[in-house]
Amino acid sequence: MIHLQSINKIHGEGGPAPFQSLYDIGFDMAAGELVILKGVSGSGKSTLLSILGALQKPTSGEIEVDGSRIAKLPDLHASAFRARTIGFIFQTFNLFEEFNVAENVALPLIPTGMSQKEIDGNVARALDVANISHKATQSVRDLSGGEKQRAAIARALVNDAKIILCDEPTANLDRENSLTFMGILKDLKSLGKTILIATHDPLFADLDIVDRVLEIESGRIARP
Ligand SMILES: Nc1ncnc2c1ncn2[C@@H]1O[C@H](COP(=O)(O)OP(=O)(O)OP(=O)(O)O)[C@@H](O)[C@H]1O
Ligand SMILES: [Mg+2]
C-alpha cells in the first residue's frame, strides 16, 4: 500500500540556511498494517507524515501510495490524491472552531463534487464510527479535548480513506480519552485501514494491534 525509497528532504534548499530533515528513508507498509513511528522531538516524524500525505514534496526519492506515485505530483493532483486516499489526524486537531462538528467533518468532501445527500450520508457514518454523533450540531469551540479528537477522527474517515496518518494523536488527551482513541483505532484496523501513527505515547507500546514499530533518529530510520 505504501512504498518509500531513498527519501531525502532538504528545507530551504538554495537559501542561506538549508536543513536536511530526512535522509535516505525507505520502508514499505502492506494494506491493513498498523505501524508506529517513534522518535524524539525534531527527528522528522511530522515531515515524513506530511510527505506521505502529499502535503509537502521530498527533495528526492520515490513514493508510491495506493498505486499513485506522489513524489512529484503537481499541487492540484496532490490535493485530489489526498481527498481520495488519505485521512489525517493531527495533534492539535486542526478543526474550524466557528463551525459545528458536522460541518467540520463534511469539509474534505466539498472538493469531491458529491451531492448534499451523499455528503450527509458519509458524515453521519463517520460521526457514528468516531462516536461523536450526539455532538453533530454543536460548535467545535464548546467541545472537550476528547470530543475534538473524535470530531477530527470523523473528519479523517469521511472520505473513506484507505490510509490514516496520525501525528501525535493522543498528545493532548488524558488517559481515558487516549484509551477511547485506541478503541477507535481497533475498529479502523478491523475495517482494513492502513494506519501510520507518529507518537511518543507509551500507551501504544502495549497495544496488541500494533504490527511494527519504526524508529526514526535524526532523519534516518533506525530499525526497519
Ligand atoms: N519548513 C522547515 N524549514 C526548516 N526546517 C524544518 C522545516 N520543517 C521541519 N524542519 C526541521 O526538520 C526537523 C524535523 O522536524 P519534524 O517536525 O518533522 O520533527 P518531529 O519528529 O515531528 O518533532 P516533534 O516530535 O517535536 O513533533 C526539525 O529539526 C525541524 O526544525
Ligand atoms: Mg511532529
Q: Profile the largest sheet.
A: 6 strands, mixed
Shape: globular
Let me know the CATH homologous superfamily. P-loop containing nucleotide triphosphate hydrolases
Bound molecule kinds, no repeats? adenosine-5'-triphosphate, magnesium ion
What features would you describe in this structure?
The chain has 224 residues and is an alpha/beta fold. The chain has one domain: Rossmann fold, CATH 3.40.50. Helix content is 30%, strand content 25%. It has helices spanning 45-52, 75-85, 101-106, 116-129, 145-157, 175-190; strands at 2-11, 19-29, 34-38, 60-65, 68-69, 86-89, 163-167, 194-198, 212-217, 220-221. The protein has a six-stranded mixed beta sheet. Helix 4 (116-129) packs across helix 5. The longest helix is centred in the last third of the chain and has 16 residues, at 175-190. It is globular, with a radius of gyration of 17 Å. The structure holds adenosine-5'-triphosphate and magnesium ion. Residues 11-12, 19, 21, 39, 41-47 line the site of adenosine-5'-triphosphate.
Main attributes of the structure:
about 30% helix, four-stranded antiparallel β-sheet, Rossmann fold, six-stranded mixed β-sheet, alpha/beta, about 220 residues, 10 strands, binds magnesium ion, binds adenosine-5'-triphosphate
Secondary structure elements and their pairing?
Blueprint: E1 2-11, E2 19-29, E3 34-38, H1 45-52, E4 60-65, E5 68-69, H2 75-85, E6 86-89, H3 101-106, H4 116-129, H5 145-157, E7 163-167, H6 175-190, E8 194-198, E9 212-217, E10 220-221
Parallel strand pairs: 3-8, 3-9, 6-7, 7-8
Antiparallel strand pairs: 1-2, 1-4, 4-5, 9-10
Magnesium ion (MG) binds near residues 45, 46 and 167.
